[in-house]
Write a structure and sequence with these properties.
Blueprint: E1 7-10, E2 16-21, H1 30-35, H2 39-46, H3 55-62, E3 69-76, E4 82-90, E5 96-103, H4 112-127, E6 131-137, H5 141-149, E7 153-156, E8 163-169
């Protein structure tokens, strides 16, 4: 059974957080969220300088095919503000998937990324994926450290200089 239900968590600082699947109706949460993400963090996420997230990219982030992709968000239960989002896109073979994550810049290191990654890993296991992986810029040491703590294996990307590949086997048997 896939973990698509919402669940509540408490951050180390005591803040109550709701983790749930991203819905199309959440599009309205993105302007406030992205307004609190630094240009540097956008660059680390999208691997290119981005001054603003254009409507076509936002539309792509909000609309996804749940048969081949998933996104979970973290919401502050008190303010209902979007704190972070993790995405997972299946490879063409359907056996493996690639993840990407973005958290409000001022909240990095507060446990939001950890909660989102744990949810995404659990979802991947339930779905029966063999492994999940993500590309991480070498200078994104906070993300690389979190991946190592979560059990990911870090290697150099053979095709792109300055990029690491974080890979986690999630299921020994593909269903």
């Amino acid at each position: 059974m896939l973990h698509l239900t919402e669940h509540h968590a408490i951050l180390p600082d005591g803040a109550p957080v709701l983790i749930r699947p991203l819905a199309v109706e959440d599009a309205g949460l993105y302007p406030d969220f992205l307004g609190d993400v630094s240009r540097e963090d956008l660059r680390l996420r999208f691997f290119a300088p981005i001054r603003e997230v254009k409507p076509d990219l936002l539309d792509k982030l909000i609309h996804y095919d749940p048969a081949h992709a998933m996104a979970f968000i973290a919401l502050d239960e008190r303010t209902k503000r979007l704190l972070g989002v993790v995405r997972l896109h299946d490879d063409a073979d359907g056996a493996n998937a690639e993840f990407a994550i973005l958290v409000r810049s001022r909240l990095k290191g507060h446990g939001i990324g950890w909660l989102l990654m744990k949810q995404m890993i659990e979802f991947s296991r339930d779905k029966g994926l063999k492994s999940i992986r993500g590309q991480v810029l070498c200078e994104n040491t906070m993300m690389l450290t979190m991946c190592i703590e979560l059990g990911f294996h870090i290697t150099d990307d053979p095709d792109e200089r300055g990029i690491k590949i974080a890979t986690l086997p999630v299921c020994t048997e593909h269903q």
